Amino acid sequence: MAWIAGRTVVLRAWERDDVRAAWEAAQTADALGQRLRDWFEPPRSLQQMEQDFDSWVDDPDPSVIRLIIEAEGRPVGDVDLFHIDQRNRNALVGVGIWRAEDRGRGYGTDALEALLAWAFRHLNLHRVELSVEPENTPAVRVYQKLGFVVEGRRREQHYDDGCYRDELIMGVLAREFERRVRD
Fold first, then answer.
1. Is the distance from CB of 128 to CB of 91 less than 8 angstroms?
2. Tell me: the pLDDT tens digits for 104-154?
3. Record: fold of 3-182
4. Nearest-angstrom CA–CA distance, 153 and 133
5. Edge-to-edge, what's the strand order for the sheet holding 90-97?
6. Cβ neighbours of residue 107 under 8 Å, at least 6 residues apart?
7. For residue 33, is pLDDT > 60?
8. Most buried of the four, 10, 37, 145, 177, by CB within 10 Å?
């Protein structure tokens, strides 16, 4: 797979230079970006991130598809399909726009829409799921626009910034996504 085209973004495979771009973006003092990064993992060095990249290349996981979101000729984020279950035809998705100045420009929406179209139409997935903080209302609105519905809430799922935070579980079926995209 060379690339998947959205309206304003291109989804493509990771290259070594993208690791440095992601690491540099993680060094910013952006409060939202910091909270989102801390939710998943502690800070990592460039060398650690390069080692992770090397392991993805040397021993790829068939249940994971990792893509770069490119806009205006530069990497602005990443989007992943993971825990791809071929038997039940479902997967999880995660999307991140790395820098504050690139958020709110529609890159994440376009990337997610392009990836979902590809996942449903080419991988023949039936269902895609994600999790999101309920307080991240811009993301929740984007997901709902693309057909995701709230399927549940994990109460006090993760500890962040001195308190436990809930997590919404949202999912979209292929037919729901296609109906939303047509409308």
1. yes
2. 999 999 999 999 999 999 999 999 999 999 998 999 999 999 999 999 999
3. Aminopeptidase (3.40.630)
4. 9
5. 3-5, 10-13, 65-71, 74-85, 90-97, 127-132, 163-173, 149-160
6. 8, 9, 69, 71, 76, 77, 97
7. no
8. 177
Residues forming beta bridges with residue 10, ordered by sequence position: 5, 70
Long-range interactions of 29-37: CB distance < 8 A, separation 24+: 30/99, 30/100, 32/100, 32/103, 33/98, 33/99, 33/100, 35/160, 35/161, 36/96
What average pLDDT does the segment 151-173 reach? 93
pTM of the shown model: 0.88
Task: Give strand pairing partners of 92.
Answer: 82, 129
Burial (CB count within 10 angstroms: exposed 0-12, middle 13-18, buried 19+), residue 152: exposed
Q: Which two tokens stand for residue 79?
A: 């989007």
Cα–Cα nearest to 121, from 4, 18, 2: 4
> Side chain identity at 144, as an amino acid letter?
Q
Burial classification of residue 60, based on how many CB atoms lie within 10 Å of its CB (0-12 exposed, 13-18 middle, 19 or more buried): exposed
pLDDT at 40 over 90: no
Instruction: For residue 108, give every residue at least 6 positions away whose Cβ sits within 8 Å of its Cβ, in sequence order, or none.
Output: 69, 77, 79, 95, 96, 97, 139, 142
The DSSP annotation for 88-130 comes to TTEEEEEEEE-SGGGTTSSHHHHHHHHHHHHHHHTS--SEEEE
